[in-house]
Hints:
This protein is mainly beta. It has one helix at about 255-260, and strands at about 35, 45, 55, 65-70, 85-90, 95-100, 105-115, 125-130, 135-140, 150-155, 160-170, 175, 180-185, 195-205, 225-230, 235-240, 245, 260-265, 270-280, 290-295, 310-315, 315-320, 330-335, 345-350, 365-370. Strands 1, 7, 10, 13, 14, 15, 17, 20, 23 and 25 form a ten-stranded mixed sheet that branches. The protein has a four-stranded antiparallel sheet with strand order 6-11-8-9, with no helix packed on it. The site of one 2-acetamido-2-deoxy-beta-D-glucopyranose (NAG) has 6 residues, from loops.
Amino acid sequence: MASPSWLFLILAATTVGSVMRVRGQGTPDSTGFISIDCGLPEKSSYVDTITKLTYVSDDGFTDAGANRNISAEYVKPSSTKRYLNVRSFPDVVRSCYTLGSLTPGSKYLIRATFLYGNYDGLGRLPVFDLHIGVNFWTTVNVTTLHQAELTEVITIVQDDFVQVCLVNTGSGTPFISGLDLRPLKSTLYPQVNATQGLVLLTRNNIGPSEEAAIKYPDDPYDRAWIPWSNPTRDFSQVSTEKKMKSVASVYFEVPSIVMQTAFTPRNASKNFDDIYWVAVPNHVYPAPEYICILYFAELQILSGNAVRRFNITINGKLWYPGPYTPLYLHANPVYNERPLYGSSQYDVALTATSDSTLPPIINAVEVFSVISTANVATDPQDGMYIQN
Ligand SMILES: *[C@@H]1O[C@H](CO)[C@@H](O)[C@H](O)[C@H]1NC(C)=O
Ligand SMILES: *[C@@H]1O[C@H](CO)[C@@H](O)[C@H](O)[C@H]1NC(C)=O
Ligand SMILES: *[C@@H]1O[C@H](CO)[C@@H](O)[C@H](O)[C@H]1NC(C)=O
Ligand SMILES: *[C@@H]1O[C@H](CO)[C@@H](O)[C@H](O)[C@H]1NC(C)=O
Ligand SMILES: *[C@@H]1O[C@H](CO)[C@@H](O)[C@H](O)[C@H]1NC(C)=O
């Protein structure tokens, strides 16, 4: 799958961190969102031109590290403001942000973004770990000087605050460009519970009408649906002006606008087998496990004897029990509850059944890896932690 969101995550060496104590803790705005432009001058804020969300400086959220600007050569007129500056943490092994005034036991989406931009003039791309509280979230392997990379976790927060910690693993100085927190309804992403979180691998709007990602306010949770366009020109776009009339489940709340576009194979006798993902192991999860969510809706009123019916397989095994027919303007997620594991690559195929007169269709996809959030702080008061 050709998508910018394939660029993130990777691995490193394990480290038992020294611990920053919690002092200041920043709080959400009136929407319940926390939107931080890390490294912005203290006490400043601005409204993001696309989402109209207000981004604030990080001085209320961490007392570690130092503000730095990216190198002028990476500043373009089109640059997103969030990526012009970073906060870097050269001195300590473990440095944390504290996001406060949360609802204990609630579900949150937390996203961290990174654009190196040679802010330190060293031209050396760092690799470091990210923790959510005392649990390992991911390894950040910054792979380009100029592109933003992101990682996102959906997790239940046990306390009225959560810490996001950057951990130096001996492969360069940790830094961060942006940090977002979005509250989710407790019904969303049922695979997430008190001991299990989901880390985003990719989230795509298939057959998009625009090149821009769909995000807030089209997605009230500010998930970014990255366009998955037509790298091989093997697909036809199908779209409708009509909003979805119904959703099959309350579990994912995919925005209607994402569902209103889709791809089918251009050659009607061809199957849809261009979606795949490659497993991304790291030092904590050498054998990662995956949750996949495929979203389907019929966008055309089918005439007379027309039938669209297909099998959904992953690595050749039937993934959805029996042939599947998307319903007109009815957004339906097909997903696994128990994670997929054990392969280095996962190939999704939609195969028209012999009685189908129309090729398969697909509107959107999300893939997540599973992390454990079962570790608890031994004593949150003094900030001592158990490590994996
Ligand atoms: C980081 O990514 C680069 C390029 O993809 C890769 O060669 C390297 O092994 C990765 N490093 C770690 C520690 O994962
Ligand atoms: C970063 O750039 C801004 C705007 O040009 C400037 O006001 C600020 O002082 C710079 N910050 C640092 C840490 O150099
Ligand atoms: C969370 O879900 C996993 C996988 O279904 C399960 O093994 C675990 O027991 C659940 N944890 C809680 C606290 O329900
Ligand atoms: C469509 O696919 C079928 C089966 O793969 C192939 O035989 C046929 O030549 C293709 N048609 C076009 C126009 O490419
Ligand atoms: C679709 O799956 C069914 C089993 O549910 C199987 O009998 C059929 O052969 C499959 N069709 C294709 C085209 O793969």
